[in-house]
Amino acid sequence: MLTVSFEEASKCPRCDNAGEQNALVRNVKDGKLYTFTCRNSACSWFETDWVVQRLEDGTVPLRETTRERTFAPIPGMTQEKAIKALKQTADDEERGLRGR
Ligand SMILES: [Zn+2]
Q1: Looking at the domain assignment, is residue 31 inside a domain?
Q2: If you average pLDDT over every residue of the chain, what do you get?
Q3: Is residue 97 part of a domain?
Q4: Residue 91: inside a domain
Q5: What percent of the chain has pLDDT over 90?
Q6: Greatest Cα pair distance in the chain
Q7: Which pairing describes strands 31-37 and 49-55: parallel, antiparallel, or unpaired?
Q8: Distance from residue 47's CA to the centre of ligand 1 (Å)
Q9: What's the CA-to-centroid distance between 45 and ligand 1, angstroms?
Q10: In the chain, how many domains are there?
Q11: pTM, whole model, 2 decimals?
Q12: Average pLDDT in the 6-30 region?
């Protein structure tokens, strides 16, 4: 399982600023759930909360929200364009395989 540090997970998935940890902490089966709020008024997640699950060993399993950072949205990319780009990549790969 991919994990990140608690410090990394406490940063806003959108703007990477450190989030404000809320008082709300919930105990779960294999750790604790913490909630953070983005206080960066320039961020699209301003005043938005996200949840961080910290396991007993202090690590944080990589979740959907943190994964988005690795796959940051590309400006101007529409779903249509994305599908086209994916098809193009598949075509290129096929051509590359045939060329070998
Ligand atoms: Zn933010």
Answers
A1: yes
A2: 81
A3: no
A4: no
A5: 37
A6: 59
A7: antiparallel
A8: 8
A9: 5
A10: 1
A11: 0.60
A12: 91
